[in-house]
Every structure is written in C-alpha cells, then in structure tokens.
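hey so i finally got around to running the thing on that chain from the lab meeting. sorry it took forever, my laptop kept dying and i had to restart like 3 times. anyway pasting the input first so we r on the same page abt which one it is
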Amino acid sequence: MATILFVQCNRLVSGVQYPGISSLVAFAKKAGHEFILFDTANYTSDQNLESYRIYKEYKSSIDLEFKRIKNTDLRYSKKPLTTLLPDLEDQILTQKIDVVGFSSFSDDWPFALFLIRKVRTMLPDVPIVVGGVHATVAPEQVIRHREVDIVCIGEGEYALVELLDSIDKGRLKLDIKNLWIKNENEIIRNPLRPLLQFNDEVPILDWTLYNDNNFYYPYEGKIYRRGSVFVGRNCPYSCSFCINNYLKSIYPIKESGHSRTKSISYLIREIAYLKEQYNLEMLRFWDETFLAVPFNYLKEFAEAYKKEIGLPFTIETTAQTIKHENAKILAEMGCKSVSIGVETSNEKLRAGILNKPIRNEAYNRCFEILSEYGLRKVANFMFFLPEQSVDDMWNDVNSCKEWGIDHPSARIFYPYAGTSLREYCIEKNMVDTDMLREIENEESVRDITDLKSNYATFQDTVLKVTPETKKEGMMILDNFILFQESELSMRDHLKQLVIKNDDFSKELLREIESKIYEKRFGKEA
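ok and heres what got predicted. didnt touch it at all, straight out
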C-alpha cells in the first residue's frame, strides 16, 4: 500500500473542497492507497486576505461588495504562515511517504517550487510528481528542475493510481499515460490517455482529508457549511482568455469539446451522501456552464434534487443558456445565485479578441429573466483588457446599473500561460515584459517571508497602458459599486471625492457609502 503526501499550493482560495483533488483522493483510496493532504490555504500572513478589498488602491471605508457577517462565531482563523514549514516537516517525519505530489495554479508556481525544494532536502530519494494547471500548460518549464521527477499533464486520477500501484510493487513504471517521467538522463514523455468518463464505477468525491475550515463559507451576511460539487467536466466554449481552450488543443476534439456528465442517479447519490456526511447547508456547483446540459436532463435532475437534496445552491453559466423555462426550474429547485461571465460590455471586443461571440442582447435578456425569477445576479468583468478603453470600463458600470446586478465582480485581466490571448498580447507588444518576468520569476520565493499577502496578478495590469488610463481604470475598479449605485449626475462629484481622499472627502464618501450599503443589504453599515 503506497502513501502519497499531496501538497496543494494555494495561498488565496479557502472555503472550498477542490473537486479535482477530492476526486484524486477517492481514486487513490479505492485502489487501496493512503492519501495525505497538506493544504497551504490553511496558512496566511494576513487574516484579511480573504477580502478582495486588500488589493484595492482606492479603499472605501465600507465594504459595499459583501454583506456584513452576523454569525461571526463560525468565522475561522487561519494558521500563521510561519508555522507552514514546521507543519509540513512534521507530516513528513511522522509518516512513511512513498511519493510526494504537488499541484498549483500559475500564480503559485514560485511558491510551489520553493516547497518542492524544501521537501527534496527532507526526502532526497522519494519521487516528486507535479500536476495541476501550471504543470499542464508548462510541463517543460516544470520538469527541467532537478527536484522534479514526474509531471502529470491533464487529468490525474488513473495516472496517479497506476503510479502508486507501481511504487507499491517496488518498481516505478515508466510508460504511464499522462505522465512525463525522468529516467536517468532522459525524459519519457508519455501520451495522454482518454478523458475520464463518469460511469457508476467512478468513486464519489472524498472530502475526508479537509478540515472544517474548508466547509465554512460566507454568503449574504451568514456563514454556511458549503460543499463544492460538479455535474460534469469540460466546457463547450473556446474563450481566448481561458485555459479550457488549451486543453482542447491537447485532447482530441471529439473528447474535449463535449461535456462529460454524471448520470442523474450517480449525481444524486453522491450529493446525498456528502450532504449527510458533512452536514451541508449549501452547495456550489463547480461547473463553468451549469446549463450546458440537455433540457430533459435538467428537468429530471431538478425533480430528483428537490425530492432527495433540497439544499440552496449557486451556479455559473453563460448568458445564452438562460431561458424562462430553465430559470423557472432553477428557482424551484433552490438555486439562489447565478454567476454570468460578461467580461466586457464592449460587444465587438468580447466577440473578437476574447472569442466569446455573445451579443449584448443576450445579456439584457438573461438578467431580465433572472430578475423575474428572483435569482441573485452576479456579473463578472475584466478590466485592462487589450484594446479596452476607459469608456468601455465606465460602460461596464452603466450596464450593471441598467441590469440591476446584485453582485458585480470586476477584476484585472492577466494573460495566463496556456491561453491564446497571452500569445496575442505578447505578439502585439502589449505586455510590459519586465513586469511579467518579475511576477512570473520562478526564483522569487527563497524564504517563507518572501510570500506577500497580495497576489501580484490582482494588483496591477501587466499590459502597457497610459498612466492616465491606469489611474482612472483603477479608480473605477476599486469603486465599481459606489458608481453603479449612484446617480449618473453624481459621478463627477464622486470621482473628485475619491481622488482628493482628504478627511472631508472621506467623511462625505462614508455617508454616501452607508446609504448605498443600506440600499443594497437593508441594514446600516
């Protein structure tokens, strides 16, 4: 029986059970192996890190984005970052470890590499395998490091089981599909296996290794015990800013272009078990396009869900999938919030550079329908996109005002590795290459104290923009809700107050923000 210590390198997102990792745990355990999870999201150098407001340059005195939490007794505290390495060392010294796995997004690759090197000094002869998004899009970059023995590309469930089985037998197998394996002076680059199909033999998600911190999530002023599940994998779209486009390029079109959906009986059985086992009060469906399933599937699932589960839940989907008939079903089965990726209100920019050809009419209709059925409307935007103007950003605010968006979420665009939009930006000389190299410097983390609370990719744009554009764009971004919820005639006055930032301006803004908070959430700030 082989044992894997799996290190999830993630400093920001908590309150979730990553479905990918939960699936890896389930597969490993079903095959008879031991799985130890070390989640770095349990550590922080700043307890305020969970709020996006920490990244804002123009901070308001009142958080207008989220309703203040009442049941604060359920709010958890993370461990100090200084205890991360001693805790990791303790896991290594007190367990018999046969292989160490690492997973990270591109944001956290320097952090992951730092920990990989630490683990290598403690376990000089144990194979280290790196998987996850960054390893998938940049396998050559990852495997060139002498501390890394194996890279996993794409889905890792069956590859992990095959790897652990071979280690259990005393000899590392070299022809495991999805794995690049170092063998003396060569790298064996094995091909990809077919994508995972969700039949009834697939084990349900395993959350036993997550502590309670991963289940508590704030929503609309209250902390709930929430679980993260998914109906299926794959996205039918090919947006240029998304990693799914890259995944389609490495898998056959017939496999990657269509959603792999769990059967309804399997899905209900899985959710019912997780609900009871972990005392869930709420669900988040992880699917990027929840309503991409056939309508008859949704109808049948909704009936079973209402009868067997009955928990409130949130989803993400696209504007063109929202119709009266499925919005009605969502509301009846307990959906509370629908998150829609708008990206930009500039239709031409969205359809062209972003390769997301959805008309503004579809968004008008989508949010009108969601309002009709009482579903909370979340709209996601990106600022500082290539060829995006300040007028476009202001129009994002205006659009949210027109649509009556309950929760506008605007963040800074970053050209992530593996996306075609990154290649476009670099080719068109739109990127500040010095800033990009600094952010993505693999050697930037030499000590635990090198880890900053703020994510660099959330603080600034790496695209070349004028100082004037950056200043006004950041002001709009940081005060999106303030401008959305105020009258258009007040905009110039509010801009001046934000920019002045003196005591009088702060006091006046606080009065305005307090009224907006009360308008949004029905309570005084």
